[in-house]
Structures
1.
Amino acid sequence: MARIPRLYLITDRQATGGRPLPEVVGAALRGVAGSGLAPDLVAVQIREKDLGGRELTELARPLRAITAAAGAGLWINDRIDVALAVGADGVHLGGGSIEVAAAARIAGNLGIAVSAHGPEGVGALAASAGARIAFALLGPIHDTPSKRPFGPPLGTGAITAAVAAGIPIVAVGGIEPPRVRDVLAAGAQGVACIRAVMAAPDPAAAVDAFCQELK
């Protein structure tokens, strides 16, 4: 069974400053070693929506090797076929993906995570397929450019409201290490980030800073 990540690293190869994505992810995961946070509580989600199935598989294979060597999980955004092909731990379904029940019929032993943009969305998902959902990514909690299309920040109160639906919550959106403890106090089981690690000059140091707050 896929672990619920305490730290969920979401990829964006356009944010790496020209560095190859496997290089950045490998460096980031080196930041877990010695941090005090168990490696299996860290996961990487490959979220490169512009890539077709073949390109995404070619990118995912080395990342599967890197995450496996580090003891971390690997999730693939939307593409169940790619997740199965590379031996990922789970698939992450966004708002435009197929329904959880349909995904579950073909996902085999893959974990299934979902995205939600408010407590009501989490509640609806819990009512329809809660037993099959490993966790819900809820955000944006704070302002962040990548999440502005989804509306204004929800604030930490939305986490507390969403947790009541019974699905574990991983919070996303403008979360830097100084904000981690408030997010956890509101009920989140983990935090997710994109640019805070992908764009960091030193991804290992960025991840270590998160781990120090999460452990």
2.
Amino acid sequence: MTEPREAASLRAIEEVAARAAAAGRLEPPGGEAVLRSVVELAATLFDAEAVSIALHDPATDRLVIRVAAGPQGKGAVGISFAAATGIAGYVFTTGQPLAVADVAADPRFDRSTAERTGYVPRSILAVPVLLDGGATVGVLEVLDRRGDASLGLRDLDLASMFARQAAVVVRETRVERDATELLRQALMRLAADPAADEDALGDAVAEAALALDGEAGDRLWTLADAVARARRAAPDQVGLVIEILDALARRSSRPAPRSFRR
């Protein structure tokens, strides 16, 4: 016979799974393969020695190079460094793009990290990877255009376009990461209150989901929580929810009305 505490743990996992499934349907998944295609295309268009994307790991406060492309990019994948270190760290902490034509003359350049990748560049173009709310989650870097052409300020707009594509991928892949955090919070709440009943457990998971929503900077988890809870409603109530969501979707897809000035 299953112990009450084990049953409560199973319910916590089921509650989280319902919200994660709803969030996954509301926002399609992405992955490192897409990020890799972003840097590969960027390396081709810039004709660069290397293009990389480093993403911030909040647990360690470090930037981790997740993907890289170009003739000199292979050795960079997996290397991490303090979030405020080097040119990438400067761009990450300030949220400002940067083009450095001569890195050897720039005091922000972190040569030791570059040496760990197996390639020390002459020039670096770095742009922040920004989510919709303005939070910086990583940095895209372009190292050394091959040949005589140099990287300059006019290339920042193109690099920023690739960074925006990377931001889309990061945003779309956060469901799995957030679901893990949601489960952790739910089980912590369960450990603190072993006598919690099913309704209390559901409320705890909902509260954790709302907290994740605030941290993520959008309403995905709020909506996922509402959809997950609606599964318990009567069939006619579920139909009403679907009608309301459909009406909102149609409304949001209409062009915004033009404003006229006198």
